[in-house]
Design brief:
five-stranded mixed sheet; 6 helices; 44% helix
């Protein structure tokens, strides 16, 4: 994706959050804070961005975000369930309306039996979490960049299609 198109995606997400009067947090593993950096590059983002977690080590997903060790043991750090729980944990810990998470294997080698390029993105909006699986190609850095792009697209898609906010939806 061209740099300008990506900047437009970041700006679109931030402006959508502003329009909906919603706040967002991030929880990242394989992207190591890259998504947070992209989001915070948008001027005026402080009105919607609360903060983020970089939980690169599996144990940090438990300690910082409350992902149960049993889930991490049974599903691994790179799984849809883990991504959903990471997003829910980030929203809970920061008190935001929205949280987005990224967990995956950017390479260069397979890990936990998971292939290079396997990435899961989680989005939690008003307590309801969803997860998506992606098989991304490229170098380690390209996979990380693509993961950030897909995460922003998923947030935008969920916010655009979510209709009215519903505070009674819980995980």
């Amino acid at each position: 994706m061209a740099e300008r198109e990506e900047t437009e995606l970041q700006e679109q997400m931030v402006h959508l959050l502003e329009q909906k009067n919603m706040t967002i947090a991030t929880a990242e593993s394989c992207t190591g804070g890259m998504l947070a950096a992209k989001i915070t590059s948008v001027p005026g983002v402080s009105s919607v961005y609360a903060g983020g977690f970089v939980t690169y080590a599996t144990e940090e997903k438990h300690k910082m975000l409350g992902v149960p060790r049993k889930i991490l043991r049974e599903n691994g750090a790179v799984s849809k369930k883990t991504a959903k729980l990471m997003a829910a944990g980030a929203a809970r810990e920061t008190g935001t309306d929205v949280a987005v998470s990224i967990t995956g294997n950017a390479g260069p080698d397979a890990s936990e039996g998971k292939p290079v390029g396997l990435v899961y993105v989680g989005v939690c909006i008003d307590g309801k979490a969803v997860g998506r699986k992606y098989l991304l190609e490229g170098t380690r850095n390209e996979i990380r960049e693509h993961a950030c792009t897909e995460a922003m697209k998923l947030v935008i898609g969920k916010l655009t299609n979510s209709g009215e906010r519903s505070k009674d939806l819980k995980l």
